[in-house]
Design brief:
Blueprint: H1 9-59, E1 69-70, E2 81-82, H2 84-88, H3 119-123, E3 129-137, E4 142-144, E5 150-153, E6 158-161, E7 174-178, E8 196-199, E9 238-243, E10 248-252, H4 253-261
Length: about 280
Amino acid sequence: MRRSRAFTLIELLVVIAIIAILAAILFPVFAQAKESARKTGCLNNLKQIGLGMTLYMGDHSDVYPTWAASVPPINGGTGREIPPDLQLMPYMKSDQVFKCPSDNLARSDRNGFAFWDGNYRTKGLLRSYAYVGTINTNEKRGLDDNTGMYYFDRSVNDVVGRPESTVERPSETVAWVEQWPDGLRDQWMGVVDGSGFINCDTWKLAGRNLPPKGPADMPITGCTTRFRARPTPGHGGRSHYIFGDGHVETRTWQQVRQNDLYVFKVTKPTQTFSP
């Protein structure tokens, strides 16, 4: 009868070393595969939001959603303004699409925020995307009224969406951005806070180098302090963007920053800016 031979210590060490090498090779591959799936999920979310925006406009005389329209709260809510995400909800299959699968960053206690729909205080859904309003540009040396899909209409003393006819090239104009930088605390679905991409919020866009490595990474006029914060991790230094016609693209920071944030301007300037 043959007797089984036990492994020697050296043989066991060799087997362990081989397993360790295989793990070192395969674990990064698995991590990349998971992030690739999350990136695709994030892209699909924005495609649904873009479609929802297009359907909304079809029911509202081709006018873009506003940002924070004054509407009495519902379901025990305390917010006096309806955020853009809930304006699009009648055209969405699920409210889960407003969170990027890669966004697992902590938020502050949501009880400190005024929810327009009280049900969303209970749901506690994170929001990873923001609707573009008036932002700072170097051309205007501050807030640029030529940016954003909505504006303040003094005739009605409220914020209103732009008619599509006033946006020169909708397919080249960003309407929604992906933003979830570390330290951002206010992006809860159902509240106005964090729902608008305004003022100096360009600091949040993925791919910006910190510390700066070139002119494109330098602060926008009036935004020096904000540009000291770290941007959204994004997906390999890139973010997804919804354009005015509803289509979605993935772009680098350098691409959206070039020509003084050209992709955010409603009427496209003929002058070329650097960066």
